[in-house]
Each structure stands twice: as C-alpha cells, then as structure tokens.
Amino acid sequence: MDTAARLLAHRIAATDWYERWDCQPFVHGIRIRERGESAEVVMPFVTGQFGEGGAYRWHIMSVSVSVQEPVEEQVRRFVEQITATDPRESAKGF
User: Fold this and answer.
1) Cβ atoms within 10 A of the Cβ of 86, count?
2) Is the dihedral of CA 1, 34, 66, 28 positive or negative?
3) CA 93 → CA 17, 45, 54, distances in Å?
4) Nearest Cα residue to 5 out of 88, 92, 79
5) Distance between terminal CA atoms of the chain?
6) How does pLDDT run along the chain (94 residues), one tens digit per residue?
7) Separation between Cα atoms, residue 20 and residue 82, nearest integer Å
C-alpha cells in the first residue's frame, strides 16, 4: 500500500491539478488508512487557502491487492478521475 501512496503523490505532483483548482496539499501529505483486509489511500487538501475561506476536502482511493489489476494501473485510473474533475464537486469534505 505504501507503493500506491507514493505513486499517487508523485503522479498528482506531476500534474497542474493543485494550481488549476486553486488547492493546497494538506500539510501531512497523502497517507494510507487500513481497515481489516482493505486499504485506502487518502489524499487530503484544502480548496483555496489554509485558514479563513479554505475548505478541507479529500479524495479516497480504495486499493486492491488483486493480481488482476496492478497497483500502478489503479493509481493511473484514480489520477485520471481526480484531474478531470473540480474537487469542490468530486471530493468529500466537511
């Protein structure tokens, strides 16, 4: 699962996603949340600026260790979904 988090962080950083949507990466970065046999990669960020006026939001990618679809492919698809949408509409938030 660390591989998925590292790949996601690297691939998102290689896009202009944060700048395009006026977002800021969350200070603690992309992390892994494991529950039982499943794991999720959580990508927190703030729309706008930190502090007043900014909204805390996140995208969650469920990661499967299935041999049928490599982690790299799962991350590629997830990055495509994230970069194609406005995070104020597609991400979870408070």
Assistant:
1) 10
2) negative
3) 18, 10, 11
4) 79
5) 26
6) 678 888 888 888 888 888 888 888 877 788 888 766 667 888 888 887 777 777 888 888 888 766 578 888 888 988 999 899 888 888 888 6
7) 12
Residue of 72, 79, 69 lying closest to 43 (CA atoms): 79
| CA separation for the pair 26, 23 (Å, rounded) | 9
User: Which pair of structure tokens corresponds to residue 71?
Assistant: 């982690």
Global confidence as pTM: 0.77
E-strand spans in 1-94?
23-25, 31-35, 38-47, 55-63, 92-93
